[in-house]
Amino acid sequence: MAASHSLLLCFILCFTHIFISTSETLFLPLTHSLSKTQFTSTHHLLKSTSTRSTARFHHYHHNKNSHNHRHVSLPLSPGSDYTLSFTLNSQPISLYLDTGSDLVWFPCQPFECILCEGKAENASLASTPPPKLSETATPVSCKSSACSAVHSNLPSSDLCAISNCPLESIEISDCRKHSCPQFYYAYGDGSLVARLYRDSIRLPLSGPPNLIFNNFTFGCAHTALAEPIGVAGFGRGVLSLPAQLATLSPQLGNQFSYCLVSHSFDSDRVRRPSPLILGRYDHDEKERRVNGVNKPSFVYTSMLDNPKHPYFYCVGLEGISIGRKKFPAPEFLRKVDREGSGGLVVDSGTTFTMLPARLYDLVVAEFENRVGRVNERASVIEENTGLSPCYYFANNVVNVPSMVLHFTGNGSGVALPRRNYFYEFLDGGDGKGMKRKVGCLMLMNGGDEAELTGGPGATLGNYQQQGFEVVYDFGERKSWVCKKAVCIFMGSLEPELTNLENRVCLFHFASGISLDNV
């Protein structure tokens, strides 16, 4: 995507939810994969999600010397990701929503998945038969820009030669009847070989009629290694779902957002669908008067382009405040260099926020000073969950310091609710001992700066995003974060609910200065 495009991050506290549509806005349901996944214990759940978060983050920095294949970051397991449903030729398809990649692909019949036994913890998704290509599906031509994009911008003449288009046809650019060659995708612990097709898909709205998306380009994989479930790429790229939707309707494709329902791994709340919002609705960018003082509706922060991972949504992190103490972020978190190193990626596919060791250690030390001096360290819990620090609490009153993320460009920050960074649960021990209340910090150590070259310096995980509306805007030349807002969705999921009058957004701002993107 062009450098002039930028990211709008609007954090809006949301509670209930509806899915509605207008001519410029679509509301679609996202399903948390945990709603269909069984874990044997809280320890198992946390260990699975922390391990997956670490593996996904470090994969961003692997294969830095490889230029032969395109390596994208895909979910390594369904531990805590969100799925979106489509219909292809009357066949339902559920794919992972991933803002860290830019292609929509899924398994197609006949499908062979190597080493997939036990890979997908979500048995319901993994057991769904792959769809069959319809008679209306057509292979993408080797001459198309989509073919070049999926092959890392290889010239169409090279791709058509690979597809056995005769030389004389290549010279006169007459290879439209020759299909785009198969492409190879490699990621964390698996890979796939697929071919590009175009067909009509349907997006499920809250009521009839569904949105029919003609000439949609997708990858059809007949062979995969350790990846039985496909991905709906929402990253910055011409093949992503939002980019393709923009060709159908710029109003729908130039902005999308999601509001992940706050769940804290609660079995009832995690089953509730989260709204994915395609298109632009009424975000008031004007100043609002609060207590007699004009306050800006948005906090602006510059979008950072990543030359190695152009599909990332990356912003600069200035620092983190724990209570009243602010810890500055390392310089490489505030920018991205020519090698693609640095910055903070907003990632729907990573569960927990990953920080470089230097900043993480400062945060942990302050937690140890504020929480650890009056509570016992739960070392066994840390070993079993992969999270740290964890503490035992003698009573139900836990004094946990506040946490604020500060983005570059304006000096303003976003205050995270306590449940977004400190998880409390009742530990059963070994079944013989007494149950004890435990609390764990939900940020993770991403490693030393030297280990993070060639990729992002940090990621903002979906657990820290829950309860906020995160808005990605491609049409604006500036990026912003909504300061403090409450977004209340009123109504139900009934099909007849098809207008925006049942959706009320109330904005409350504390401080901040708007800043135009240069």
TrEMBL record:
Residues 82-482 form the Peptidase A1 domain. The keyword Protease applies. GO terms for cellular component: extracellular region. Transmembrane segments: none annotated. PROSITE patterns: ASP_PROTEASE, PEPTIDASE_A1. SUPFAM superfamilies: Acid proteases. Keywords: Aspartyl protease, Glycoprotein, Hydrolase, Protease, Signal. Residues 1-23 form the signal peptide. One of its GO terms (biological process) is proteolysis. GO terms for molecular function: aspartic-type endopeptidase activity. PANTHER family: OS07G0603500 PROTEIN-RELATED (PTHR47967), PEPTIDASE A1 DOMAIN-CONTAINING PROTEIN (PTHR47967:SF26). Belongs to the peptidase A1 family. This is Peptidase A1 domain-containing protein. It comes from Salix udensis.
